[in-house]
Write a structure and sequence with these properties.
Length: 240
């Protein structure tokens, strides 16, 4: 069976390789409408932007490029988990008696580590159901985590910052391990990276950096936001 995104492209083919899977497009349209129909106009625009970015991650040529380059697959994952997921999760409210944020941080961490191990990772190229299992659990756990990071009570701030830091460190640690590994992890890319001017190890190291650096910046921004909101809340009695 061919990978879901098709055979690995070479540079001259890439911009002709859009994924126009009608089931994918219909599913994305349905879940987008399911969320935004209940939101106010400003919120609707932000959430719709999140789903549009997620759609580009699956529909654009980054999908077939991820078959040729590990760094492209990691870019796809970071777009989903660090850009689209926060925009979507921001407007998914938490219930009053919601679970601890540590559950979503643990699910996010487990998904990141499990799916980027060699055996399950390479299985996604040989099975479409496994491919979608990877992306649904990675993207779903990221939405869950960002919902909790961006929609919390003020008295949860320190717990939220700690859980976000835990998730950030785990993602960064995996990125560092991939970056500094002395050998390639994924046999799949043994014959696909040269056409793009990279050795297999260089491609893996680039993917590790893409996972490592942006995650630290974005999680730090989320922690700073939570801290500033708590600071403003603490200043309110003095202002009155």
């Amino acid at each position: 069976m061919l990978p879901y995104c098709g055979v690995a492209p070479v540079p001259g083919q890439l911009w002709f390789r859009w994924n126009l899977d009608p089931w994918l497009i219909a599913s994305l349209a349905a879940v987008t409408w399911g969320q935004i129909r209940t939101l106010a106009n400003g919120e609707r625009a932000v959430a719709a932007a999140g789903w549009a970015i997620a759609a580009l991650a699956f529909v654009s040529p980054i999908c077939p490029l991820s078959v040729a380059l590990f760094s492209a697959r990691i870019t796809q994952h970071m777009v989903l988990m660090l850009v689209a997921a926060p925009l979507i999760g921001r407007f998914l409210p938490r219930g009053r008696w919601e679970h601890s944020i540590w559950w979503s941080a643990a699910a996010f961490t487990a998904a990141i580590w499990a799916w980027h191990m060699p055996v399950p990772y390479e299985a996604t190229f040989r099975s479409t159901p496994i491919y979608w299992s990877m992306h649904l659990t990675l993207f779903g756990s990221a939405i869950w985590l960002w919902r909790d990071l961006l929609n919390h009570r003020t008295d949860e701030t320190l717990t939220v910052i700690s859980a976000g830091l835990f998730a950030c460190v785990q993602m960064g640690l995996l990125g560092a391990v991939l970056t500094f590994s002395a050998h390639p992890w994924f046999v799949w890319y043994a014959t696909t990276t040269r056409a793009w001017g990279l050795s297999q190890l260089q491609d893996q190291q680039l993917g590790g950096v893409i996972m490592w650096v942006p995650s630290g910046v974005i999680f730090l921004a989320a922690a700073s936001r939570s801290f500033l909101l708590m600071h403003k809340w603490l200043e309110q009695p003095a202002m009155r």
